[in-house]
Amino acid sequence: MTLRCKTRSSAARHFLGGVSVSLLGGLSGLAPLPVAAQPEVSGSGTVALDELSVAGTGLGVERANGPVVGYRATRSGTGTRTDTALRDAPQSVQVMPREVLVDQQDIRLADALTNVSNVQAAGTLQGRTETYNIRGFNTQTGAVDGVLLNQSSNFFTTTRDLADVERVEVLKGPASVLFGRGDPGGLINIVTRQPTLIPSGDATLQGGSFGFRRVQGSVSSAIPSIDGLAGRLSFAAQTDPTFRNYGGRDNSRFFVAPAFTYVPTPDTRISFLGEFTRQDSQYDEGLIARNGRVPLDNLSRYYGEPFARYNATSNFTTLRIEHDVNANITLRQVLNVQWGAFDQFVVRATGVNAAGTLVQRRDTATDSTYAAVDSQSEIVAKFGLFGVQHTALLGYEYTNGYRHSYTTQGLIGSVSFLNPMFGAIPGALSLQGDLKQKNELHGVYLQDQIDLGLGLQLVVGARFDFGTQFYFNRLPASRTIPPEQDLFGATPRIGLIYRPIEPLTLYASYANSFKPQTANILGAVNPAPETGVQYEVGARLDLIPEKLTLSGAAFSITRANVAASDPANTGFSVVTGEQRADGVETDLAGEILPGWKMIASAGYLDARITKDTTFTVGNRLVGVPSFSGSLWSTYQVQGGEFRGWGFGGGVVLVGRRTGDLNNSYTVAGYARFDATVFYDIDARYRFAVNLRNLTNARYIEQPYNQFNNAPGAPLSILASITARM
Fold it and tell me: What CATH class has 9-724?
């Protein structure tokens, strides 16, 4: 059964208007708190204050899953699955705190990730979702609070909303030793906002260029009559017509995320998170390449039809239970269930005639469903052995996921390359493919963080994944059902950390990745999994102790059995041979002076095909610039008559990129300049205006293949008002 979720623009507008008025009206009567810190349920069952205040100084100790003071995080659980200082992780881990998202007024996850070195938005999959290149390699999935999204899906069905996001973390390089299946470039982990015992809340109204409208908010409080129980509800709704010419249709998204935390005893913690998203968007392939480049004379040019729609739902629920046996041993059980669906009736470009004047097209209909269950059982033990301190993690993970995608297609009339017009009649549809995939995997993993003394730490770990995969894509003439395929992956990691002096940390590491194939591979039966290996050396330096941190890394990653878009544009993928990415990068985050914050990045990549029978060896990988970088800085006046006023700005730099593995065309590099001005009226209200692409530059933001090139938005203005309690 396929779940359909049609949404009309008028309904979205009504919802936005009604919710926004009621939210602001409700919040306006709340008394302001003298300090913006809100207590949360702590591990001991007592109340622990968040590290936020009007003055911006910390109250308490930062936690791996908690708020961050300013732009500089100091702890994370993404790289080790334990609450560990970032300087004690043997791989690069970059954290985007919520304060960065708020100051930049980030709407998309792609916007937040421009702050991270060697991470690029890599395609919207025709406006349906988001994909990224991390250290040169594409990833189309990620994790939420340490739980990977369905391993049988080749992309997440909806665009990520940021309403309940506390921090965005990027683990660079293979993460398979802890997370199992995954891409070698890295892992994006979303850390969500936790419930608070004392009432807290915020609501934001946003409006901007091209008719954009959005309301989002989050409210949290203790639940009456049950000691130790707190809840949070985060929500968002938006309508986005965009600058693209869809023939009068809008994109809309609705998101709600309930969360609960319960501490029945000082040693036991129980939490629940639910995330439910509904999306109705235009199917948009973007601009088309011709004669080795993508024309940018008209960024709104659209080669589809107004009826080309994409409708999807995604649902994500996690139950987490932790119990401290004693001060040194913690037991953890995580149970996650995911399900969702999408249906689409779309128009796709298939070619350009020899004269370059017409775009040939086809119409396609797809119904797809997915579901998955994930169970993680872990024990964390701290102990001394032979005079050496250990933090050991032992875990077992069971995952079972499937997807079913049924696709039909036909022919539809061509349109002009330079002046496409709407109104073509859809053609009759016939079977293109009937894909069924199921993965059942067991993973056993062990990690030991060893403090050797004298400033030396050793992190060693290994994971073994085993199970079965059923993968079958029935073409029109195929009726043979293949057997299940046995899967096995061994992914070790070893890292050495050395702190010669207190502000400086040096590290070196070796890591592996393992991932069953999920792409629609042409003519394949149970294709071999992807594998990857990385060598990395790096350093972290506190330029200003407790305030400003500079990190850098050099690395080499090799990836084998890679799935890529078929150059014949069949709609399927092909398995290529081997690819390699060598690079260096640096990231800076923190506070330079009171009120002056900065986050910056720079990266260089040489990412190429090293072995292949389909594409030319030496060709560059898709959408990977040799150089990229970013800078964002804000300053808020700390005293005097202008206290509360703030301003800031930054630049995003992206170099020239190739659009396909044939390197048949390139897209130029670009520099995008942004700015903001904001005013904290008092402890309760903030008004902000953000401007993006100040120079109105024309550029391709996300090349994907010849027929899919998403242009960057022109000069855009976004105004927002936030009410807090």
Answer: mainly beta
